[in-house]
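User: I'm putting together notes for a lab meeting next week and I want to include a structural view of one of the chains we've been expressing. I don't have a solved structure, so I'd like a prediction I can at least talk through. The sequence is below, exactly as it appears in our construct file.
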Amino acid sequence: MQRIVVLNPKGGSGKTTIAINLASHFAMQGERPVLMDYDPQGSSARWAGKRDKTQARIHLIKAFERDPRITRTFQLRIPDGTGRVIVDTPAAVEAQEMPELTRSADKILVPVLPSDIDIHACSRCVQNLLLVAKVHRSDNRLGIIANRVRRNTVTYQALLRFLGTLRIPIIATLRDSQNYVHAAESGLGLQEMKPYDVAEDLAGWQSLLDWLEVPSTRRSAPAGVIQPMCRA
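Assistant: Thanks for the context. Below is the predicted structure for the 232-residue chain, given as structure tokens.
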């Protein structure tokens, strides 16, 4: 079982878009994915709730909810036979929360938009992952996604220059496309839409999917429940 954490404390970076499309992809592959939504806004949960019963199954865990009638461990339990767990994290994750959130992650994805504000936020996020969460560059489990990109623009070139200074791999460049909006509104992933409508968008995902198949080099975390975040 692989755990994929999508993380960036900056709101609006595209964490939910990445998470739901990964869940859809793996569901289409028959891998019985779990989508774990930690974001109090519940965007991933709303998307999952729009899916029809005839669509490829995705098991949803509303990790942002607290039920005093059951233990937290029971609430976050992972069903037997799960192939992938995709964790959609909230905005404004504090540095001290990152170690617990990423400890059991096999892969950590940090989406970043091509703007000065987002570049600054991404720099701080990566710094906290390296220094506070102790994620090592050599582990091959931390990757950057350049998101909502319009190529041949000044902001995109600035983003590429910045990402080159991080010495963290840019594992995908995803184009700015309304197909993501349409998919989210319909409870779909890109792979579930008409191929001729999304072919150009899907091309950007292949490098990300390939990178996810390359094992991390750190010792594997014990199987089981992803640990809850510190926040109440």
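A couple of points you could mention at the meeting. Confidence is low (pLDDT under 50) at residues 220-228. Residues 148 and 184 are 15 Å apart (CA to CA).

User: Perfect, that's what I needed.
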